[in-house]
Amino acid sequence: MPVDTSSLSGHGQTVCVTGAAGFIASWLVKLLLERGYTVRGTMRNPDDPKNAHLRELEGASERLSLWKVDLEDFQSVREAIMGCDGVFHTASPVTDDPEQMVDPAVNGAKNVIIAAAEAKVRRVVFTSSIGAVYMDPNRSPDAVVDESCWSDLEFCKNTKNWYCYGKAVAEQAAWDEAKERGVDLVVVNPVLVLGPLLQPTVNASTVHILKYLTGSAKTYANSVQAYVDVKDVALAHILVYETPSASGRYLCAESVLHRGEVVEILAKFFPEYPIPTKCSDEKNPWKKPYKFTNQKLKDLGLEFTPVKQCLYETVKSLQEKGHLPLPKQQEDSIKIQS
């Protein structure tokens, strides 16, 4: 029996989510369906078994359709967006190969904005990245990273950081195109995203944690990283879509940790795994975390999941999905119970 969604915020609204099978996008689709939205998810191949988890979401049989879309093919983008009230553009290549990263990211962003303008959608929410924000060698270590910061494109080029370069130029292209065509655009800039997986495959950000548990990383780097929970990122997208006054960019981060702190937290929760205890750089003092503000999202009512809880849930999810062997004593207790 279909759920009565008439009292939910998304009732009667159709939205398009690009790259719907991705880590963030899968959670976004799940939360949108729970709120009563009708969702069109785009992907390269809807029949690929790795997209099956979307069809199993609550409400999917009534209100989710999967569309075969190539973001560089304007016609296919236009067909998916025509008739939608809103668009969440989450699809993006994740690679350090400049040819696969930059042009597809920029062309995809432009095509989505142009199609959204033609379809007269209410708002486009664009998933950018901290990579478009904080790569700037000239920023003082005491400066607070906020929505006004942009990555230095020349620095990204010179250090061959094509992911951050691609994210920055794609976001800039989206802003330029939206301004020119009168599209209401809001951008979410997440940091490294962790948390439970809905999709069966491991994604780039989860591998970052997995390597510390499998023994493939013998040491940890002397570096810092900002983290945020995937459920918070998905909810941030919905909050900026549903709040009429939302505008501009929204930095989506919970906390900045040194890699040494990450392995400490993992070792406390999961002492049975071969988690590294040595830093690869023992000469220099630990790098200091950068300062940032997430006040804009807090003002919209977002309550961030603490990073410790997020790390714990990430590992539990990796165990459940079979990407991480269960520790021996757990396996024994499962055998006894069964």
From TrEMBL:
Gene3D superfamilies registered for this protein in UniProt: NAD(P)-binding Rossmann-like Domain (3.40.50.720)
EC number, as in UniProt: 1.2.1.44
Keyword ATP-binding belongs to the record: no
Key word Oxidoreductase present: yes
Keywords: Disulfide bond, NADP, Oxidoreductase
InterPro entries xref list: Epimerase_deHydtase (IPR001509), NAD(P)-bd_dom_sf (IPR036291), NAD(P)_dehydrat-like (IPR050425)
Reactions catalysed, as given in the entry: (E)-sinapaldehyde + NADP(+) + CoA = (E)-sinapoyl-CoA + NADPH + H(+); (E)-4-coumaraldehyde + NADP(+) + CoA = (E)-4-coumaroyl-CoA + NADPH + H(+); (E)-coniferaldehyde + NADP(+) + CoA = (E)-feruloyl-CoA + NADPH + H(+); (E)-caffeyl aldehyde + NADP(+) + CoA = (E)-caffeoyl-CoA + NADPH + H(+)
Domain of life: Eukaryota
Domain NAD-dependent epimerase/dehydratase: 15-247
Pathway: Aromatic compound metabolism; phenylpropanoid biosynthesis
GO process annotations (BP): lignin biosynthetic process
PANTHER family in the cross-refs: CINNAMOYL-COA REDUCTASE 1, NAD DEPENDENT EPIMERASE/DEHYDRATASE
Protein name listed in UniProt: cinnamoyl-CoA reductase
Gene that encodes it: CCR1_2
